[in-house]
Request: fold
Amino acid sequence: MDRLIVTGGARLEGRVAAAGSKNAVLPCMAAALLTDEPVVLHRVPDLRDVRTMAQILERLGVKCTRDGGTLVLQTVDRSQSEAPYDLVSTMRASICVLGPLIARRGEARVSMPGGCVFGVRPVDQHVKGLNVLGAQIAVEGGYLVSQVRRPLKGADMFLGTRFGSSVLATANVVMGAVLARGLTCLENAAMEPEVAEVCRLLNSMGASISGVGGHKLLVEGTSALHGAEHVMSGDRIEAATFLVGGAMTKGDVTVDGIDPTQLTVVIETLLEMGVAVDRGQDWLRVRADAPLRPVDVTTMPYPGFPTDLQAQFMAAMCVADGISVVTERIFPDRFMHVAELLRLGADVRKEGPQAIVKGVPRLSGATVMASDLRASAALLLAGLVADGETEIRRVYHIDRGYERIDDRLRALQGQVRREAQPPVEATPLDW
Ligand code: EPZ
Reply:
């Protein structure tokens, strides 16, 4: 078990290349279940979640061969269609093997993902959408089970939660519909760039999806898909995390290899905070030399403000010059980072799905506990501006979504080191 030790005070300066998108590569890997031909993905980030997805795919008969940033995925055996609890429970994105398994094999047994620190995260829209296509999914012993044993049938549907669209449910249902008989019209599809990227990969595998990137997807089913080669796009959430770090440390940071048009609302928010933002075709640069201005953010489905940046921006608000309000509309309980930011001396008051953040002149380093991926990124950013040292424990959370984060922050002059977590010495008791 590793920990990160962050010494605050250094300005982040320099250029960093964005890694491939975590939230796009996971469903793209699952798409390999839809063909027996090789699916080759380039610029695949080296992350815990990518390894977990590969382990699940190997269990499902997909050979996963990695060579640097290239991953070759090929279905070699279709006899095993069970995605077990021990793997699925560690990563919710595993659920997106459900659609391709049923579409290609007519059967699936996928563990329900189970609990999450964000609170209840149902999969009803995944089940609803695939059942509209005829998947007949039932819940048995904590597993989503389908034994339809014939091609799915295209249909019209509206996919939606009380929070709006669902990213992975859209990807799952589209991967079900590409091999279905006939046309599927998917209303209220998620517009996240990661969903559009899955659709582009599927189209390069011979699928026929139109309306990519919009709320209405039309999928004309086909009888078979072939292999394809695809270069992953840059991770917009990782990129923005580095940019927020540059802003908080009054630094000068450029992130290369991303599509700035995927971060419009984020750029606007940084500008509102008084940060200078420059952009190019595939890069973004932030410069800041004054205390940040407060700002209010409300998380929404894309192209709204991403919930996956809520924690990182809250860290920035903690040292802004005034009061900011965060409203979390996607995961109303996604505030695990608040208690840890308070340990660093922040002034944050949580009220239901909102947090009122009163900027403080300085944070002071402390030992804090990471609870989830983006919360741990927020603690890392806060540690970069806190006085003294901040020790972040359970950094396996951050390794799930940020490739070699400590190396890359050091390359930007950040003072971050990774150490093994010493075992906690139990106090001997004489009874
Ligand atoms: C994806 O999760 C991302 N994960 C999440 O990023 C991200 O926070 C989320 O989308 C929202 O942008 C991946 O892509 C791997 P949703 P997903 O279904 O698809 C409710 C990160 O930090 N809902 O769009 O699971 C749900 O509870 C991760 O990288 C239902 O009610 O999220 C939530 O309130 C964390 N029923 C809302 O919809 C359903 O069947 C949106 O969730 C599905 C979802």
User: Anything to note?
Assistant: Residues 23, 26, 92-93, 121-126, 161, 163, 166-169, 190, 194, 307-308, 330-331, 373-374, 401 surround EPZ (CB under 6 Å). Residues 236-248 form the longest helix (13 residues). The CA atoms of residues 19 and 234 lie 6 Å apart.
